[in-house]
Each structure stands twice: as C-alpha cells, then as structure tokens.
Task: structure prediction
Amino acid sequence: MRVIFTAQDPQTIREAFARTKPNAEFARLYAAAVARRQADQIYNLSLTCTATVTLARDGRSVIGVGRVKTPTLAIVCKRELEIRNFVPQPYFEVVATAQAEAGQLRMRHAPKKWILRREEAEAIAAAAEGFAGPLAVRVEDKRQGPPRLHDLPSLQKLCGSRFGWSAARTLEVARELYDGQGKKVITYPRAETRYLLESLIPDASRIVAGLRVGRTFSEILVPEPPVIRRGAGGHFHDKGLAGASHHAVIPNVNTVDTLREVWPRLMGDERQLFDAIARSYLAAMMPDFRYRQTTATLDVRGYLFRAAGRQPIELGWRSAFPEWQPAEEKGEEAQLLPALRHGETTTLRDATVEDKETRPPSRYNEGTLIEAMQNAWRFVADEALQERLHEAKGIDTPATRAEIIRGLKAQDFLTAEGKHIVPTERGLELFAVLEKADPALVDPGVTAQMERLLDEVLVGQQEMIGAIDAVCAQASRIIGRLQKGAGDVDARLLGGVVREAGPDRPPTPAMKGFVDSLARRKGLKSPRGYTTSGAACRAFLNQYAPKEYGAKPQADAGSGRPSPVLRTVENRRPPSQTVADAPAVKAASELGDKRTMPGRAATARKRKASTGKPRSTRPSMGAAELPSPETASGDTPLRIPFGSKEAALQLGARYRAGGWYAPAGVDLACFRERR
Result:
C-alpha cells in the first residue's frame, strides 16, 4: 500500500506557478489552499484504504479514517471513557461561623490536600469549636478588563451553553445576519481571530452610537470617546491577525445606522445572536471593572480557615451584561463580608463537617467540543510541543468544524443527549480499533502539528511542497504500522455491512415469507412470534425444511462445525487469497491505475481468456427461455425479491453478470426461479 495522490500532483502545481507568476500574496493563499486540500485527500484516502484492507478483512466493510474526523471522535470517546471509568473519591471539609465585631461570616477549612478520613475532619471541627484568635485581613483593589471579542468558535461555545444550539445552527444564524436579505448587520462570521485591525479604530464611535439608538442597548453607558485598547492585551492588534483571513465578528459599521429599520426583520434566534455580538463590542469600548477583593484567614491550632469576598467599586464593562455572573463570584466566594479589621479577635462556633465527593469531568456540548478542537495543544504531553502548538488554530478551521461534528453524527459515531455530545457504541468501538492499530490515528496532537504546518504555508514560513511531503511521510509511517501490527477485526464493529441474524434480531422479509409459504404448503400452524423473532423462524425452518433452508441435521448441531450455508458465506474467496491480493484492492493500491474495481467487461475478458468462453448472460425474456434450474456448473438460478438481497447473501446466494444464483451444494428453494 502506498500513499495515494489525488487532485493535482505537486509537480503540476509548481509548473502552474511558473507559468502564471502570480503576486506573492496570491501565491501564498493559493498554495495554502492547495496544500490543505492535498493533505486531506492524501491522508484520508490513503489511510482509509489501508485501514479497510488491513483491519476489515471481510472485504465489504469500509473503515473511514479522517485527518480531522478521527481525532475529533477520539476527543469525545476519551472523555466518555474517562466518565464511565471514573470512581468517585469521598473527602471532607470543615466549615464554621466566625463572629467579628461588625458581623458574621462563614469560614472554611479546605486544604489543597483533601481530608480523606472523617475522623480527621471531626477532630479539626472539635478544635475549631469555640476557638478565638486574631483575624488576618488582606484587602486589594483590583481591576479586570473586558473579555475578548468573538470569533466563530467562541460564538459556538457561547450559544451551545446558553441557548443549547448546535455548532451548525450558530453558523447558520450568523450567516443569515451577515448576508440575509435586508439584514447584513454583522461582519464575516467565519472569523479566525478575536482581534480587530487598528485601522478600524475610527469606526468605534459610529458603531457605538448606532447601537445605542435602540432601546435594547440605550442603557449601556459607553463613554465618549470610547475606550480603545491596543496590543495583545486589547482588542485592536494588527500582529494578532497574522495568518488570519478575517477579524473578529462585530456589528457592521455600514448598516448600524439603519439598525432601527432592520431590527423588526430579525427572527428570535437572530436577535439573540446579534445581542451577544453587540454587547461584546460595547463592553470592549468601556472602562475596566473595578472591585475590592477581601481575604480573611484564621489560624486554628495549625489549621487554616479562610473566607473571601469581593465588593464592586465601578462596574465598567460589566454593566453591558447585567444578568451575567462569573463562576468565581458564585457560592461562598460571592458572600458580602462585613467590615473587617486586620488583627481583630474572632470567635468560631457551629463547626460542622461537610461530606464532599469528587466529580467526573463534564461531557462536551458542541460549543465546548469546538473549543477542544481549537485548543488541541492541551492533548499533547510534550511541554515543548505544547508551546509551539499553543498559538496554532488547533484541528481544522473554524469554517468547517461544525461540518465535521455533523458528519460524525450522520455516520452514527456521535449523538446528542440534551445539550451534550456523546459517542455511540459504534463510535467507541471504532475508536478502540483505531487506537489499538496505531495511536497516531486518533491523536489530536498529531493532527494539530499538521495544521500548524499548513498554517505556516499561509504565512510564507513553509513551502507548499514541503508541507505535502511531511503529510505524505506521516501517512506512510502510519500505513507501515497498520500493515505490520494490525490483526483481523470484526467488520460489524466498524460499520460494515456484514450482519448475522442473532436470536434477538427480527427476521428478514424473505425469512418470514418462507415461513408463511412452508406453513401453507404443509398445512402447519405458523410459529408463535415468528413475525418479530428470527430465532422462532430459524427453529421452524430447521425442523420442517432443513434441506431447503440450508440447515445442518440436528445430529450435527452440537458438533461446532458450521452448516453448508455458513461455510459458503465464510469461503467466498479461495483460501489462498487475502483481501490485499484481490484484484480490486491491487488496482486501488497502484498509483498509476485510476480504477478502483475491474469492470464487468474486464472480468468477462479475463474469463474468456482463461476458459475460452465468454461468461454466460441471463436471458431477458420469458420463462421458457430460462436455463434449467441445475446448470452444467451445478449453480441454481435464483430470483431475489427487492429488499431481500442481504438475507440471500447470508444464506449463500451469489451474484454475477448472469444474475443471482445458488452455488453447488447450497439449496435455496425459497428463491429458486420458477418455470
């Protein structure tokens, strides 16, 4: 198996550049687009072909491997397995009420190292009860800048957690706001960065004024002129857009003056998304949030009790989000502390022990999954490599991540449970097979490295040919690993078409029809529950039509040897021929042969060359013209009703240019051609 080249060969691309002599910027953009396309096709098709040949040896299953799809599936599967294998760890904390001069406050003993024994926690609570000592108080005035503006991934994460939208839904609504008829109220939504160009600073006052005309944003007090923050810690940063095609998503300066007329045309979801984008922009133009952080500690015989609280001094940008409260301000961290003096004496009472338990990580929703794809460096153990990947864009591009997730759901590898995305059993099985075959196939870090390489083509730090060669080398290495270490895998685990009628599977239409026909012919009563139970059908057919159904006599049932039908199914090809030796696979593995399967004409030519006779064809008219039921080769022509082909295949039927037939030794009376 060799790496498959599709689309244009790199040499052809190089010659095209030499002929056209485009400018440098166009050349970079074109090279980056071609490199990404080539990388996807080389990697995906080569590894899909190799994985199918080496892992699904039944020859009828296809194991799809994707440079982006497979690691994305792995992210969700690893989280699900982590949750399933999680064992809760109980621990304990001690809380008490402290009485100060100005009032009461709750203090907690929560050391970094958990208290795992209740006896130890109860001893600490006993020591704290009635304890009096000096209170250490630290008061700091702090400030916090507004959050960064939105790119597409951050919008998808916000809408996924707040509204329960899918990533695709967020993009759909954003596109309608961008180019919908009579709308066009935001900038390009497939943003790749959260910065703005410094040349957009003069538009700030106009956008703010246009937004504040309506009632929705009129109460948000943005200073005049707006606060402009430059550089990496601000919002206007030219260097932050290096390698990016589009800046952060903001209200469109060209239509903001007509927002009062456009607003009635916006649907409910569109208003919600525009509200999030507009408030983010307004907050970016407002002063910092200023607050006073108070931390009080009390040393209780070597055990540290602590209380914290913050009091706002100036809301600043926080007034743009009146209903929002950050996680660090919830619970006891948000308590309003009384006026405390450093060194004042405090007495503890009502000391109690609280039972706690560790929790598993939360499942992904589509927004947090996209964030995980964007921050693939977190899945890399090597710290040096983490640093290099930290500024990369992660797995795939913002424009196509939603489609990757949608595709995994359509293939029944992922599914939605409320707001969460979880893997199906089929997805978990595929992940387990590929991880065992080669961990690089499901490693988001490996894909992030390739993305970083492709990004370097866009900014001119890497040549297109070098990037493609690197992807080829990676694909070749994985192909070698697959060919060396992969064993046989049950194709049913990998989404193949091979199915076996088990005791709990419903019967096929052909099987039910055969039972009905046999019961009428022999004057028997149909078995109970045969319309929903494949086992009932098989038992009835084995008893009353063992030869016609192809079952072994009852004396051989416990021999452990397969029936003639099953032997025929298992021995579809000569024992000496593996899937890798099959003509179709050989053709697909050769770079110079564009065919994936030999055509019927080629098959007929081969047959004629080997036997001197062309393959027989099936007559097209009339029962009188049909060949005899038992042909010279011992094959029996069959008539397979629509919808019953799979059942016929399982029972031993085969298809060739002349039509369906039963091989010699396989009796399929229910499908036999009638004269």
Remarks:
- The chain is about 40% helix and 10% strand.
- Confidence is low (pLDDT under 50) at residues 4-11, 488-493, 495-504, 550-633.
- Residues 254 and 392 are 32 Å apart (CA to CA).
- The two ends are 48 Å apart (CA to CA).
